Amino acid sequence: xxxxxxxxxxxxxxxxxxxxxxxxxxxxxxxxxxxxxxxxxxxxxxxxxxxxxxxxxxxxxxxxxxxxxxxxxxxxxxxxxxxxxxxxxxxxxxxxxxxxxxxxxxxxxxxxxxxxxxxxxxxxxxxxxxxxxxxxxxxxxxxxxxxxxxxxxxxxxxxxxxxxxxxxxxxxxxxxxxxxxxxxxxxxxxxxxxxxxxxxxxxxxxxxxxxxxxxxxxxxxxxxxxxxxxxxxxxxxxxxxxxxxxxxxxxxxxxxxxxxxxxxxxxxxxxxxxxxxxxxxxxxxxxxxxxxxxxxxxxxxxxxxxxxxxxxxxxxxxxxxxxxxxxxxxxxxxxxxxxxxxxxxxxxxxxxxxxxxxxxxxxxxxxxxxxxxxxxxxxxxxxxxxxxxxxxxxxxxxxxxxxxxxxxxxxxxxxxxxxxxxxxxxxxxxxxxxxxxxxxxxxxxxxxxxxxxxxxxxxxxxxxxxxxxxxxxxxxxx
Length: 478
Fold this sequence. Notes:
This protein is of the alpha+beta class. It has 11 helices and 17 strands.
């Protein structure tokens, strides 16, 4: 009971009076005394590091919500309390047709719940995947609706910091709504009321977001600006038109190298207007990106790519037709994967893990040297050696767990480094023979590397166990 009280105290959102703000602060989305059993839970929309979003129908009203379920224990353990509070407070104050709406919250012993607007059209990412790539007219409409919502967000003095196709949801009739404000950051002149016990990071530019959409200034630890979101918009528009992100590669390390080098190639079928807009949004200098300069969003909206867009009544226009998910027919009754949710899932840290698609190792080349991002790991590489996979992991042992930097290179070489002393603590003897070296994945975050002489267990907090397995096996099969 004592632990429950401590959690309740840490995670409850108090309506304190912030300085220089209104003396009263009332939430538009109330905190209700509901129970998870008041809802009929359906399919899982998405899984995060400490949360899951589930389709939930309120039993007494029949209204469908996207219910975000957050693990209290994980939130307090990983010091994410302020981020959760900030997301709740920001969503409560946002009121725009292009932004997901928060209706109410509730909690129980183990979880926090946010009842969000359910977007039955799914993710924009799914539309891109189902169609292969979008037509320019489709991409123009979706990009325009994102621009309109981003302009609203930025005028309020907020940065989203995780714009990508997976966070752009579609209503049942096909209009875009920006979701997932878990990385939101209020700027100094923000018009949003932020309570004293809910604040984002105080560092100039903490690394947040998704690797393929992170701008170069974040890798260089420059202050966060609206240009961060505009770079991600450029990456997203590129992905709409091509079917893949502009900096896609086999590992985060290689993605970061390509971003630093601004190594982006445009397919021949891109129009001059689309190529020019993406090229400008992916400008190395954030203030030069359309929407970030002195002319504000006018320069972005007036770009030739948006010719034909009527900005005044964008939400009244007919959106592109949605590509429906193909039905999968299973031969056996027990072979179908059950993606529905039931209360026994609550508090369970397992979930569907997204697997990265790896390009063949033969196509991996050294694209750029990184001088400003994790350059300390370069000392462990030979002149022509390139990192394929790198991550701070826990080396799991019987008595103690030690943090190490696990590094896989194209030599191939697999080592783990003491991140404090910067010395190699171990070299895993490489073998192309799967009988002499195998990788076993236990959970989305834990995996084992088995060799004839020893078995080493690791835990990747970013849930990339399957990526480690794929990367190692790809090198073995090169």
